[in-house]
């Protein structure tokens, strides 16, 4: 039996569903003028002369400055909390992780905008992978910071809050083939006992520092293909790799995309998610998500966008182009479910022909 709570997210889904229904009714009746088209989604692009710290620093500053010019001078400056989070990716293993030079460039740009070094924190999933990628010092040296910047390791369980979780009827020990309804719930854990065990299995706790402790956060994904999700990138780094107990979704190509879409649509997560910035220094087109050097491509480009769906759609095109070049089959329509579900929930657009490019 599924118990529902009137969470903010559940209410927002009901409102969106009602709005869609009303919109169709109004259009059918012909009683209201068509609404103006929404503004074209924006993607910033900077070409890199190389992948050095200097090149990343110059490119990030140009992109940030133009983002501020379009969104307001205070868009990337400290707010009431005085803190900012960076969600990095290291989980494919050494060789396919967020470039440290890019992270340093982002940190330097944020410090120039008024953030104190110790108030810029990094969030990653796995301690071993973070050490292998250079984001944590060796065990022999000790410490849990990247230079002066705290690193929050999600697998420790210290950065989840029992009042913030994604509640799904897919326990970790079960793998049903049919997706059932799920929601985001805000509430304490149930009392201890058999029911609590089942309840805990159904919950994926969210990394709350990004949306409760920070003025905003920035997503820094790395791209690869994925056997269940189709594409492993901006949307997945912000959701499944940003919560607990999410491996249960990866047993089904229907369950996982729906879970990503619903988590990405959580209002608190979306409102504090300023944008994603991704380097095309290395991405993998087949054999992912674990790193395999034979199947990677490198482009001297840096992209920034507040629309993670659009970024994933653009990269899906590139993955397919690389697969075709190497005579591998393309990712098929089923692999676009992730993008389609996110579009339905208003997370972004997968219509790559509508993109507005800005190249400062």
Write a concise keyword list for the protein shown above.
360 residues, alpha/beta, Rossmann fold, nine-stranded mixed sheet, three-stranded antiparallel sheet, 11 helices, 16 strands
Low-pLDDT sequence parts: 1-32, 173-199
The coarse overall form would be: globular
Oligomer: single chain
Q: How would you write the strand order of the largest sheet?
A: 4-5-3-2-9-12-15-1-16
Please trace the helix and strand order, writing H or E for each element.
Answer: HEHEHEHEEEEHEHEEEHHHEEEEHHE
Largest sheet: 9 strands, mixed
Q: Helicity, in percent?
A: 25-40%
CATH class: Alpha Beta
Please report the total strand number as a whole number.
16
- Beta-strand level of the residues, as a percent range? 15-25%
What is the CA-CA span between the terminal residues?
54 Å
Q: Provide the CATH topology.
A: Rossmann fold
Write the topology of this structure.
Elements: H1 8-29, E1 42-47, H2 53-71, E2 84-88, H3 100-112, E3 120-124, H4 127-132, E4 145-146, E5 149-153, E6 160-167, E7 183-185, H5 194-202, E8 203-207, H6 209-213, E9 216-220, E10 224-226, E11 230-232, H7 234-238, H8 255-264, H9 267-272, E12 273-279, E13 283-284, E14 296-297, E15 301-305, H10 308-325, H11 337-344, E16 356-358
Helix pairs in contact: 2-3, 8-11
How would you describe the overall organization of this protein?
It is a single chain. With 360 residues, this protein is of the alpha/beta class. The protein has one domain (37-165, 207-358): Rossmann fold, CATH 3.40.50. Helix content is 34%, strand content 19%. The protein has helices spanning 8-29, 53-71, 100-112, 127-132, 194-202, 209-213, 234-238, 255-264, 267-272, 308-325, 337-344; strands at 42-47, 84-88, 120-124, 145-146, 149-153, 160-167, 183-185, 203-207, 216-220, 224-226, 230-232, 273-279, 283-284, 296-297, 301-305, 356-358. β10 (224-226) and β11 form a beta hairpin. The radius of gyration is 20 Å and the shape is globular.
